[in-house]
Amino acid sequence: MSGEIVGILERELGADAVIGPGHERLDDYGRDESPLPEFFPPSCAVLCATTAQVAAVLRLCAEHRVPVTPRGAGSGMCGGALPVAGGVVLSTERMTALRDIDDASLYCVTEPGVVTGRLQEAVEAQGLFYPPDPASLDYCSIGGNAATNAGGPRAFKYGVTREYVLGLEVVLMGGEVLRCGRRTAKGVTGYDLVAGFVGTEGTFGVITELTLKLLPKPPAAATVLGVFADAATAGTAITGLLRGGLRPSVLEIADRASIDVIRGKSRYRFPANAGAIVLLEVDGEAEDMERAMERIGMELDRLGALDVLAATEPADRANVWEARRLISKCLKDAYRIKVNEDVCVPRGRIVEMLARVDRISAETGIETAVFGHAGDGNLHVQLLGQDDPEDPAVRARMWGAAERVFVATVELGGTLSGEHGIGLSKMPYMRLEQSEQLLEWQRRWKQLWDPQQLLNPGKIIPGRRACAE
Ligand code: MLT
Ligand code: ZN
């Protein structure tokens, strides 16, 4: 049936909307930014431009029992957009209208294909602010951010995507269009379906419109960098900063391997003596910046920083952030294998988690790098290698080490994913964290929205076990 659906969709939406078999771009829709190369060829990709087209695809695929995998910009890191069961990839990349920015009521209404960084620039031009800032903001899309409940450095002060999604238009499998949520700052009318859709990685419905909460743009911001001898002292400093009275907007860490990989590749040069860095940002009124930076500098000194550097000019700050956002890409370029995780531990356990990663590295001989949103306990643990990523033994070894990272995380009271989602690659490890009872309730929830199990099948929740444990 999957072959037949291509012709059916071409007739319904026009050949221009369908990338079918033999098209040179089709393979792109079978890949994303997953840790180890995964490729699942779809029968076709449909580039929808309107809600009506999304509804037509979901109606026709339900009628013909063809699996559908929704896709934003394909920047996901866990295989959430990979069409594991074949069928149709439904891309929202052509839904790029930013429809309304309401500066009196502080919200905007947007289609899902708008690139997150573009949305931020558009609202900032009106003195407004959309805080969630995933590192991929130059190419990820806002619909994908909502589908994965993306975070980013500013989540430390401002929270993750879910806290900004006020309302959604969602198309369900079968083609029904559902509008939920509100445009008001508060609202507790009925069940919170918006929160229920955000973070479900396109397994409940396809997001076709979002209403997002905006804030007034802070008039000023400054960046401060604490240079530390090693990751352990930097981690201890993070704990100290969390317990102090400071309230930065960002509190990040990067270890030596993460810093070294971007040397010579970014405009900003990290100091040669940096064994680890703690990166902070403060925002607020211009006249408060100097005092805030002084206090942070004193705290960093007290917590053992070798050096404290500040960036206040917009161009300097932009260079520091360019360098930070390059870490993931540079590690990917430097290693043939990069299994990047985004585990999250209770904030009091960061130092222990860093030590556990060191131990796993020493015992497995696998190189690691750790960076990320330490203020949230959210660490991007990277397992790195130069072996052949297609070799099953190599893959098993890397995933074995990743499992040890997950076990350590759960033992410390943490969670498998702080911001990237579960998708395909972390699904096998869900039982490390969640009970069979909890998984079963989630299967029932999925069944409610997608009784035919056709929408993004094979993701997040592992299947039932064949026999009782
Ligand atoms: C980041 O914060 O840079 C990312 O979420 C990317 C990554 O984990 O590789
Ligand atoms: Zn991140």
What percentage of amino acids are in beta strands? 15-25%
Rg result: 22 Å
Q: What is the CATH architecture descriptor of the largest domain? A: 2-Layer Sandwich
Helix content class? 25-40%
Q: What top-tier CATH class of the largest domain fits best?
A: Alpha Beta
Poorly predicted spans:
none
Class derived from helix and strand content: alpha+beta
Give a count of the beta strands, DSSP E runs of length 2 or more: 19
Ligand set: D-malate, zinc ion
Largest sheet: 8 strands, antiparallel
Distance between the termini: 37 Å
Q: Tally the helices: what do you get? A: 14
User: What is the count of structural domains?
Assistant: 4
Q: Could you tell me the CATH topology label of the largest domain.
A: Uridine Diphospho-n-acetylenolpyruvylglucosamine Reductase, domain 3
Q: What is the average per-residue confidence, as pLDDT, rounded to a whole number?
A: 96
List the helices and strands and how they pair.
Layout: H1 2-13, E1 18-19, E2 44-47, H2 51-63, E3 68-71, E4 88-91, E5 98-102, E6 107-110, H3 116-124, E7 128-129, H4 142-148, H5 155-158, E8 165-171, E9 177-181, H6 193-197, E10 206-213, E11 215-216, E12 220-228, H7 231-243, E13 250-255, H8 256-261, E14 276-284, H9 286-302, E15 307-311, H10 314-334, E16 337-340, E17 343-344, H11 350-364, E18 367-373, E19 378-385, H12 392-411, H13 430-433, H14 436-449
Parallel strand pairs: 2-4, 3-4
Antiparallel strand pairs: 1-2, 5-6, 6-10, 7-11, 8-9, 8-10, 12-14, 12-15, 13-14, 13-18, 16-19, 17-19, 18-19
Residues 135, 372-373, 380, 419 line the site of zinc ion.
